[in-house]
């Protein structure tokens, strides 16, 4: 898998907004079970748009995409009441204000991450701790726990999904956006004849 | 507890598998095919990977239940955040590279060879802790031992992050030119016998080994560049932004400020098999281009030429011909 600038933009600029995006979806969409799917669809749309040109301001772009998707879905779903649609039209201003402090991981984030790992099922938790906190390779994790390497791999697959979901509850603290300024510039900057 | 989502399940399986160790060629092909199937696969994978890497930060907290200390070999360098990614890159590079032993004249017993294909990048980690990022279509050999640290750049471009060691200077040799690090981050780009050295941090000495009497060693310090050719080493200052822009390739990006189209096309052609062809004569090659572009997305750039400049763009799959 070759890494592209869009991948980097997606990881550094879009993913740190997941908590805010999920909060927005929870407020605007009644069917909680559909949120992961909506989020995936939104990610897909912003990623595809970014392969043409990386948007200058990620946050407003992400939320505009989210809003458009919700409107599409609401119009297609007959069960959605008319108020939902009207409600969607006004996008929360607070959500769209770009801020450069999105990708920070502070003490609080660390605490939540630990809490998320503590909530994992016991075996999954032990694998994750040995692998991530103690930095043991999967093979050594297997040896230490006396289980097969393929079991460790399965537990990693499980753990990573639960951890990713738990990250949603992490509210970023102000800090530094390492790629923010640089990447925000991307896309055609000036176009003109000599 | 967990949503049933087949794509995310597959993404998690691929991630866990790579977390176990580099994929073999067949698995790698399978993974690449899976990723290429849809953007949805890609974004889902990237999301899980980012979360999994983020959990590495827990290692710094030391709040985990005590374990016997892991063996020294397991302690990872600060770049561990990217380690899984590097592992993937390593797998890619190893599959693609592997030249036979005798096709280069290799003077060092303990040397390592690294190379990248068109459009690829690769980060090599040397045993002294130094790192070399290879840009597209690059070949180099590194010999790092107890007494010497020497890299030969045969072609292409690389960015060096050198762990300084007064007793063992880090030397980059390219043709007859030699660059000696004085504790530093710098890039070297070779085109034939012409060398461009850009220093992002620290300083390097550039020497012409074949003509030591005609050209003295030139010290190039932070935010300076040197263009070196046999018998001529020219220095010029660079702004921080210029240095950053010239290193954009490290993130897969080409950054141009007011550059003529013919030069921009030549840059893109380093990264892509599909070549941009701009008429050699005439004013078209002088059109000024500015902006940041994904190095391997020459199609998007061609579309911009069409939509932004009204140029005619003919793409036959191998070449993109630009005309009026």
From TrEMBL, chain A:
Domain RNA polymerase sigma factor 70 region 4 type: 111-161
One GO MF term: sigma factor activity
Residues making up the signal peptide according to the UniProt record: none
GO terms under biological process: DNA-templated transcription initiation
InterPro entries attached to this UniProt entry: RNA_pol_sigma-70-like, RNA_pol_sigma-70_dom, RNA_pol_sigma70_r4_t2, RNA_pol_sigma_r2, RNA_pol_sigma_r3/r4-like, WH-like_DNA-bd_sf
Transmembrane segments: none
Gene3D superfamilies associated with the record: 1.10.1740.10, Winged helix-like DNA-binding domain superfamily/Winged helix DNA-binding domain
Alphabetical UniProt keywords: Sigma factor, Transcription, Transcription regulation
Superkingdom of source: Bacteria
Family per similarity comment: Belongs to the sigma-70 factor family. ECF subfamily.
PANTHER family for the chain: RNA POLYMERASE ECF-TYPE SIGMA FACTO, RNA POLYMERASE SIGMA FACTOR FECI-RELATED
NCBIfam families registered for this protein in UniProt: sigma70-ECF
Name listed for the protein in its UniProt record: RNA polymerase sigma-70 factor (ECF subfamily)
UniProtKB/TrEMBL annotation, chain B:
Organism superkingdom: Bacteria
Protein name, per record: FecR family protein
PANTHER family registered for this protein in UniProt: PERIPLASMIC SIGNAL SENSOR AND SIGMA FACTOR ACTIVATOR FECR-RELATED (PTHR30273), PROTEIN FECR (PTHR30273:SF2)
Residues in FecR protein domain copies: 113-204
One Pfam match: FecR
Residue ranges of domain FecR N-terminal in the record: 9-50
GO molecular function: sigma factor antagonist activity
């Amino acid at each position: 898998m070759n890494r592209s600038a869009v991948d980097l933009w997606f990881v550094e600029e879009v993913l740190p907004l997941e908590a805010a995006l999920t909060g927005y979806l929870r407020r605007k969409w009644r069917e909680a079970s559909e949120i992961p799917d909506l989020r995936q669809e939104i990610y897909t749309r912003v990623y595809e748009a970014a392969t043409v040109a990386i948007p200058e301001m990620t946050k407003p772009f992400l939320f505009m995409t989210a809003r458009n998707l919700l409107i599409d879905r609401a119009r297609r779903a007959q069960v959605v009441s008319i108020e939902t649609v009207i409600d969607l039209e006004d996008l929360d201003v607070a959500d769209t204000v770009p801020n450069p402090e999105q990708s920070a991981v502070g003490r609080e984030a660390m605490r939540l991450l630990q809490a998320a790992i503590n909530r994992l099922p016991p075996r999954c938790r032990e694998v994750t701790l040995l692998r991530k906190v103690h930095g043991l390779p999967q093979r050594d994790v297997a040896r230490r726990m006396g289980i097969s390497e393929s079991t460790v791999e399965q537990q990693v697959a499980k753990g990573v999904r639960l951890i990713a979901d738990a990250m949603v509850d992490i509210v970023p603290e102000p800090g530094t956006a390492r790629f923010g300024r640089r990447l925000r510039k991307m896309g055609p900057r000036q176009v003109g004849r000599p | 507890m967990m949503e049933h989502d087949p794509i995310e399940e597959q993404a998690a399986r691929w991630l866990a598998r790579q977390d176990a160790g580099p994929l073999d060629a067949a698995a790698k092909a399978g993974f690449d095919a899976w990723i290429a199937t849809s953007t949805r696969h890609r974004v889902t994978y990237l999301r899980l990977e980012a979360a999994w890497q983020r959990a590495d930060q827990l290692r710094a907290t030391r709040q985990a239940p005590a374990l016997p200390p892991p063996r020294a070999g397991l302690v990872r360098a600060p770049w561990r955040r990217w380690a899984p990614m590097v592992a993937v890159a390593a797998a890619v590079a190893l599959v693609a590279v592997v030249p036979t032993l005798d096709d280069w004249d290799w003077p060092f017993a303990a040397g390592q060879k690294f190379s990248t294909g068109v459009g690829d990048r690769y980060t090599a980690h040397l045993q002294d802790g130094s790192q070399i990022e290879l840009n597209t279509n690059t070949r180099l050999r590194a010999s790092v031992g107890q007494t010497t640290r020497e890299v030969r750049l045969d072609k292409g471009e690389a960015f060096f992050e050198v762990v300084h060691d007064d007793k063992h200077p880090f030397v980059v040799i390219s043709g007859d030119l030699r660059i000696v690090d004085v504790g530093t981050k710098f890039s070297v780009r070779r085109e034939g016998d012409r060398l461009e050295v850009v220093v992002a941090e620290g300083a390097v000495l550039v020497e012409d080994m074949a003509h030591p009497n005609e050209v003295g060693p030139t010290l190039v310090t932070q935010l300076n560049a040197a263009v070196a050719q046999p018998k001529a080493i020219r220095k010029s200052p660079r702004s921080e932004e210029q240095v950053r822009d010239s290193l954009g390739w490290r993130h897969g990006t080409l950054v141009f400020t007011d550059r003529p189209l013919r030069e921009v096309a030549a840059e893109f052609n380093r990264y892509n098999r599909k070549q941009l062809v701009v008429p050699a004569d005439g004013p078209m090659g002088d059109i000024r281009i500015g902006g940041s572009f994904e190095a391997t997305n020459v199609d998007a750039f061609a579309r911009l030429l069409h939509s932004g400049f009204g140029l005619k763009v003919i793409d036959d799959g191998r070449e993109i011909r630009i005309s009026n």
